[in-house]
Specification:
The complex is a heterodimer of chains A (271) and B (320). Chain A is elongated. Chain A has 271 residues and is mainly α. Helix content of chain A is 77%, strand content 0%. In chain A, helix 3 crosses helix 8 and helix 9 (154-171) packs parallel to helix 14. Chain A is built from 14 helices and no strands. Chain B is an alpha/beta fold. Chain B has two domains: 2-226, Rossmann fold (3-Layer(aba) Sandwich); 231-298, Alpha-Beta Plaits (2-Layer Sandwich). In chain B, 37% of the residues lie in helices and 28% in strands. Chain B is built from eleven helices and 14 strands. In chain B, the strands form three sheets. Chain B has a six-stranded mixed sheet with strand order 6-7-8-3-9-10, sandwiched between helices. A four-stranded antiparallel sheet of chain B has the order 2-1-4-5. In chain B, a hairpin with a 2-residue loop joins strand 9 and strand 10 (214-219). In chain B, helix 3 (96-106) crosses helix 4. Chain B is globular. In chain B, 47% of the residues are buried. Classes of the chains: A mainly alpha (271), B alpha/beta (320). The interface between A and B is large, with 35 and 43 residues.
Chain lengths: 271, 320
């Protein structure tokens, strides 16, 4: 059996020493790609800019009177809820986009490069942060126009916003996983909504949880959106925060711990 | 010398469910040569390229690139290959320059290095003027050039070109051929898949013909051509009434072989010395007062090659 050695020129061509932090550097390079795409196709942000405005109007002016007796009071209550809801539904689109992207040639190109396999996924998720920031700003701006006011201080408000963005970032690994295993982008969209809808409604997002039937209360109490919204209400309006922030952070960690490895595994299997 | 074999594949097998895309394919490509893989749609060409470029794992057999196993040393293999084709492409939402800089960054050329390399490639592929437009605004030919440029960012030793000219018009096709030639001059090794015998003949040092996942021929272009036969001369008289007279002339030119009417109003005969036959035919048709609207020489088509090699017409039912 002849031993085949690589010619010297080849050996020299491959970098003698790998540069450190490859995963981070390559992921960030691919994050930049996502950001450039957002700037190029701002219309992709329409859902996250128009949707919160639409939901604020629907909930405040259609249900507000019935729920709180005053549309102004209900606006204060529901604004953090609409923000959380938009972030949760907005997270679905990364799964849809990745599912479509995978069919395109660009992912084959990535796979043929000597980069960590997970870098394109991590890059895409990090790039999505910009969507959550845009949601947060547009929801805040529109709610402000309608009469929403912060009752705490800017620092607390910013903390509330950061928590919402962080939650979106962690939650998005679930749709990413879905995007890796679903056969069509339509399926990702459909299943995503089926999961997100009960999560947003069976919670304290739109109504006081104590008005919900007893059998639902158990679900509402562990629902991550209940805790996210309660944290934001505390940080924006000065309501007692309690352990809600810790619950939210715990959910963030749990979502990443479960869905990130699943998504990366499913992505590798696609190869 | 074994250590100068840049591609060595032995008995590659790949199944997709019940379909056998590859049923034991061998390929050997020495350094600095062009190897043409010829076959119809679904023959397994793309599957073979995807295995060699580490995108697919084979179900059987082994493949090495410059001595590195495509399964176990995938990372090293990825460091020395460039892939262009129907699959590996660029990001349509980025500009030509942004695409090339992105790949340069991912290949650890550094910020400056990536920019410099992008600039070089844009110039070489005549894309400088379009460098800052998004790739989706590019014409088909420009897209192909950008795809190819993207696969050359890391100065790969082995380049896979999967049907690089399918859908390109003839002049663009020749530009692409020139690029392939210059890559080889620079010492690269090229594996080229194609559906066109002409392309393989013009570029390749050796040709492997595959059909339904099996190698059915492997030879130099000259020898392969001798096996499959010479060229065909086709003539379309302007006046259909003169078909018979023209057929008689063609039959004389091809030393007695009767002319076939291959399409309505078009006659064809096999010829051995194409140039000589063309000149003679033109002169005789002219002397006989037969005007023609079409007069051409053809290499055997892929279908004819397959017919000769396998005794049946090419099929495209097998999985790609």
């Amino acid at each position: 059996m002849s031993v085949i050695t690589a010619p010297a020129r080849i050996a020299a061509a491959t970098p003698p020493k790998r540069k450190p932090f490859r995963l981070l550097r390559h992921s960030l390079a691919l994050t930049k790609r996502s950001l450039v795409k957002v700037v190029r196709t701002p219309e992709a942000l329409i859902d996250v800019t128009i949707q919160p405005a639409l939901f604020l109007i629907i909930f405040v002016y259609i249900f507000g009177g019935a729920i709180s007796g005053s549309t102004h009071d209900y606006l204060q209550y529901v604004m953090p809820g609409v923000l959380a809801q938009t972030i949760a539904t907005g997270a679905i689109s990364i799964g849809v986009n990745l599912n479509t992207d995978l069919q395109k040639g660009i992912f084959d190109r990535f796979r043929s490069l000597p980069i960590p396999r997970s870098a394109p996924l991590i890059g895409a998720v990090l790039g999505d942060v910009v969507r959550y920031v845009v949601v947060t700003i547009s929801t805040f701006a529109f709610a402000y126009l309608l009469g929403f006011r912060i009752h705490t201080d800017p620092l607390h408000a910013v903390a509330g916003c950061l928590l919402a963005v962080l939650f979106g970032l962690c939650l998005s690994w679930a749709p990413v996983f879905l995007g890796m295993i679903a056969r069509t982008s339509g399926a990702v969209q459909g299943i995503g909504f089926l999961v997100i809808m009960p999560l947003t409604f069976a919670s304290s997002v739109f109504v006081n949880a104590s008005t919900l039937p007893g059998w639902m209360q158990g679900f509402v109490k562990v629902n991550p959106l209940t805790h996210l919204v309660a944290s934001m209400r505390g940080l924006f309006l000065g309501a007692p925060v309690g352990t809600h922030v810790w619950w939210t952070l715990g959910w963030c960690a749990a979502l990443v711990a479960v869905f990130m490895p699943l998504a990366l595994m499913a992505y590798r299997r696609k190869v | 010398m074994t250590n100068d074999l840049m591609v060595q594949a032995e008995g590659l097998v790949k199944r997709f469910g019940a379909t056998h895309a590859l049923r034991g394919v061998d390929l050997v490509i020495p350094r600095g040569t062009v190897h043409g893989v010829l076959g119809p749609n679904g023959a397994g060409k793309t599957t073979a390229v995807r295995i060699l470029s580490t995108l697919l794992k084979p179900d059987g057999g082994t493949a090495k690139i410059a001595g590195f196993d495509v399964v176990h040393d995938a990372e090293q293999v990825r460091g020395m290959i460039g892939l262009t084709g129907q699959y590996a492409s660029v990001d349509e939402d980025l500009t030509g320059r942004q695409n090339l800089v992105l790949f340069g960054t991912l290949l650890d050329l550094g910020r400056k290095g990536a920019r410099r390399r992008a600039e070089e490639l844009l110039e070489w592929f005549d894309l400088s003027a379009a460098a800052d437009r998004t790739a989706k605004t590019y014409s088909g030919g420009m897209r192909r050039r950008l795809d190819l440029a993207a696969s050359l960012v890391g100065r790969p030793e082995v380049i896979f070109l999967d049907e690089p000219t399918t859908g390109l018009d003839p002049s663009k096709r020749e530009d692409m051929w020139e690029v392939v030639r210059s890559l080889v001059r620079d010492g690269s090794t090229v594996l080229l898949t194609t559906q066109y015998l002409e392309e393989a003949e013009v570029l390749a040092d050796e040709i492997t013909v595959i059909d339904q996942g099996l190698v059915i021929a492997h030879d130099t272009p000259e020898k392969l051509k001798r096996i499959v036969g010479g060229q065909t001369l086709e003539v379309r008289p302007s006046d259909p009434a003169q078909l018979e007279k023209a057929a008689a002339i063609l039959s004389e030119v091809s030393s007695g072989v009767a002319a076939d009417q291959i399409r309505k109003g078009v006659l064809a005969v096999p010829v051995t010395d194409g140039d000589q036959a063309l000149a003679t035919t033109v002169a005789r048709l002219h002397a006989a007062g037969i005007a023609v609207t079409e007069l051409s020489l053809h290499l055997p088509s892929l279908d004819e090659v397959f017919f000769t090699l396998t005794g049946r017409t090419a099929t495209s039912e097998a999985a790609a």
